[in-house]
Amino acid sequence: MDRQRLIENLKRHEGIELKPYRDTVGKLTIGIGRNLDDVGITEGEAEFLLSNDIGVAEGEAHELFRRFDTYSDLRQEVLVNMMFNLGRPTLSRFNNMRAALLEDDFDRAADEMKDSRWFRQVGNRAKELVWQMRHDQVGTPDDWQEEG
Question: How does pLDDT run along the chain (148 residues), one tens digit per residue?
């Protein structure tokens, strides 16, 4: 079998859709005929997508936080996690947090994270990230609760 020829034919027959759509029988579909309703994606495919999305979020965090490279690995992870969760347009509105980070004032940055709708909406995720920003440690769920 000529796999490359088959790929080209499937692309031509199915088309390439980069956003989900409903096919002719109403199945949620994406890419080149991937039936998400019946087939979904594999864990490996989900991790591949995640890896690509992390790369995008990290690049945007580098652009948004001028001193990004000077922060510890864990604090960088907090910022990339927030970028992944919120997207650049929303995270860019965290002006007070960004100002605190420019001064390496991580306690104030953590306080500004807490003083947001995001903190009230995402629950334990936010408590964990605030605690990590403040302490530059991973901590435990019991530790994170002090940020509540």
Answer: 999 999 999 999 999 999 999 999 999 999 999 999 999 999 999 999 999 999 999 999 999 999 999 999 999 999 999 999 999 999 999 999 999 999 999 999 999 999 999 999 999 999 999 999 999 999 999 998 889 7
> Residue 124 maps to which CATH number?
1.10.530.40
- Give CB contacts under 8 A, 24+ apart, made by 136-144: 136/72, 136/74, 136/75, 136/106, 137/74, 138/74
Domain that holds residue 109: 67-147
Evaluate whether residue 133 is within a structural domain. Answer: yes
